[in-house]
Structures are given as structure tokens and as C-alpha cells.
Amino acid sequence: MAMLGKRRPRRERSGVSGLQGRQAPQSAPGRQGGADGTAGVIIERLAHDGRGLAHDAAGKALFVEGGLPGERVEVAVHRTRKRFDEAHLREVLQASPERAEPPCPHYARCGGCDLQHLEVAAQRRHKQTVLRELLARQGVEVPDEMGLLAGASDGYRRRARLGVKVDAEGGVHLGFRARHSHRLVDIEQCTILVPELGALLAPLHQQVASLSAPRQVGHLELLDSDQGPVLVVRQLKPHGEDRGRWEAFAAGHALHLAWLVGRESPRLEWLTPAPALSCRVPTAAGASAMGELTLGFAPGDFLQANAEVNRQLVSTALQWLTDLEGVTLLDLFAGVGNFSLPLASAGASVTAVEGSPAMVERLAGNVQRNADARALRVEPRQADLAQAGTVARLLDEVGPEVVVLDPPREGAEPAVLALAAARVPRVLYVACDPATLARDAARLVHGGYRVTRAAVADMFVHTSHLESMLLFELPGEGQRRQGASPDG
Q1: Residue 279 and residue 270: Cα distance in Å, rounded?
Q2: In angstroms, rounded to a whole number, what is the distance separating the alpha carbons of residues 477 and 225?
Q3: What is the dihedral of CA 94, 98, 99, 102, to 10 degrees?
Q4: 80, 222, 452, 485: least buried by Cβ within 10 Å?
Q5: What's the pTM?
């Protein structure tokens, strides 16, 4: 799951091609046996969402949570569908050598980390396979060698949302959603949160339980920054007594605290002195003595959850997009400048376009903040990038040699339609959803591009969610500029 405490990403209908044409009888919920009459079923492979794929004695497909390829397992069906069933493990009869002991005590109940039972190296190979298969279905070929951008397998997550619920008996529950449920699982430790945030879980549970009006707390947002941990309380209605309790909590735990107050049009109000929050990203080699740029942001701005993998994304973009000195570059979905400023530090003249006016303002401030390191040629703009006409006008006006795309989960279909027509020499696409990436990649390939570089970014270790980055080039353009084979 990409966002802890938020709804799971939508799954593909099957996760494996060919199931739509499979006709099989309905099977009743309960224990299932294999087609060979022996106990249990054999897990044949992993579906794209990380579940094991098997077939029951009647040949009907089973998607088994927690099953790994090659394992013989006993399962129970918990949801029957027309062409396939969904099941969970009762017992592992013959385990895969890649099976791992989940490091988190909440693994069996929490809906966050759904792949902790699989060794981390195998998780990452699975994600590379998924990306390659989804692209292949759309007729998109990728280089034989696919990169992997990865960091630590625990203590990596710098932001999370905690749900809060008060039950009928007045008991306070604080944590993440259970699997297949809106019910909260009480969490007092989390192996993937950065230690500074993980240390707050147990005290936060006690804090919310001590409030006079805990039902007025909708959720809690945790965020780590260069200035230390940040807590944002979603406060549905102001409460003076609880405000004082929160201020004391912030003082006792040395954190920055705000609450988002109101039901209809909530406003952010700092209960501690308002901090100038920031994080750091790499710069082009030699562009700064420190080798880093500082990006200011505010709660609610988009910020990648895994700081180390984000740094690798930026560094890889700088490596792939060589020879940027004097190049005109258009950065779409620019946010607060995560890619815009590092690429400008390499000498590019960047037009950075973002839909949120507040983030455009912070992007402009970040250009000024880093001006001492090097004169950065970045022009921030606000525009609705969901409109193909808007992107076409930007392409016509800017005339970029390189376009960078870092869209939300919905992808960037209007933008790639305009790009395919404009034939910009190089397009770097950073994706947080492989299915929409595959759709958009097909548009570019049909427009004459080919993928010359590809990498999976393991932004969310222990989950089936994957992010990726692809470099598209028009034949001849990239090779002429780089002076080398695109696969070299």
C-alpha cells in the first residue's frame, strides 16, 4: 500500500492475463485441494498485486494472499467470483526458500505491508517483472537491463497518516486500516517508519486517550523534515482544553505541531512556532560545494515518502539526462521543485509547471533559497495539466528539448498525447502507478519514441506498490546528443 492509513490502490481485475476468458464453475468457500488430488494447492506465480496464483481441483483460478511461487499451501476462500476466487492461507505445507519471517508484529492484521512474507530481494525482482510485463502488454519494449533504485528495508518512511476512532464504549483506537476492512488496527510500533516518527506512536495513543474530546480528532499526519518531526492533527472542531494538551505534548516531545481545524473548509493553524520546513535533494556534480539543494515545503505538499529512494531518482535523472548545459527543459507536475532545481543545477533552462498555486509559490521560493549555490534558471508557472490543450500550448511556447513528467496516479495521458504530436527529443517519465504508465508509454511508442532506459524505484518496501522511471527518446536524437549508445 502506497499510503499508510489510506485506501489500498485499485487492483487489476485479475492480475494475470487470460483469466477473462476462463470459464470455471463456482466453488463454495472453504478449504481447497489441488488439481492432482493431493492436499493443498500449488502456488504457480505471483500476480501483479503480490498475491499467489493457484488453481483448485476444478481448474478455477485462486488468488491467495500470502502464497509464494512453488509453495504447496492449504487455503480457505473468503470471496467467490465468477472466474476466480480470492483466498487466504490456512497452512503452508511446503514453503518457498524465499519465504521470510515478517519483521512487524502487526503484519497479519495491518493492511499496510502486504509482502513482508517475501524476502526483500525477491520483492524487488517481482516488481521489475511486473513493470516489464505491464509494458509488454501494451507493446512497449524496454532494455534487457532494468535498473533498481532501492534503500533500506526498514525505518525508511518519512510520512504517514494515522486513523483515529473512538468506539461505542469510549475506547480509543489509533493506527492503520486492517486488511479488507475500514476497521483500525491499533499500532504502537511500525518497522518502516523513520525512528523519529515511530517513537511517537505509543505516546500518541496515550495522548489521544487523554483528550477531553477525542471524537473531534479525525486523523493524525506524521512527517519528518530536516527540522525534526512534524505532527498535524485533523481537529474537526476547536477545543480549548485539548489545544492546551496538544501544546504540552509538543513541548514534551520536541516536535512541530499544527492542527487542521474545521469540518467544511479546514485551516492550518500552528500550535508551536511555524517552522520553515525543508528537505534535501542532490545537485549536479560540481554545482554546489555541499552537493545538495534545499527544498522548502509545507504540510499538504507532495513529498515522496522515501527520502533515500527519492534522492536516487533525482541522481539517476541527472545521469540519464546528460549534457544539459543550455538545454531547454519543461518540467510538468513540478511540485516544489524536486526535479526542476537539480536539473537546472546541471545547466538546463527549466520551465517548471505545477497545478497547485501554493506549491508554485514555494517552488519560486526554493529557487531563491538556492540562488547562492548557483544561478538556477527556473521559471515557475501554474497551469492545469489535465488539459491536452494546455500542454500543447506550453510545448509550442517553450519549445523544449527535454520534458520531465512526474504525474499523480492518474498518469499524464493528455500530456503524452501532446508530446507524441510535438516530438520532443527526450521525455523522462517518473511514475507512481505502473498501469497508467504502461498506457501512457504506449502512446509515446506509437508516436515514434522508444524506451532507452528503465528503472524500478522501490519506494515502498514490503508492499506490492512500485514506482518507476523511463527515458523515452526519438530514434537518433538521444544518441547524437549523448555521443553514445543509449544502452551503454
Answers
A1: 19
A2: 40
A3: 180
A4: 485
A5: 0.88
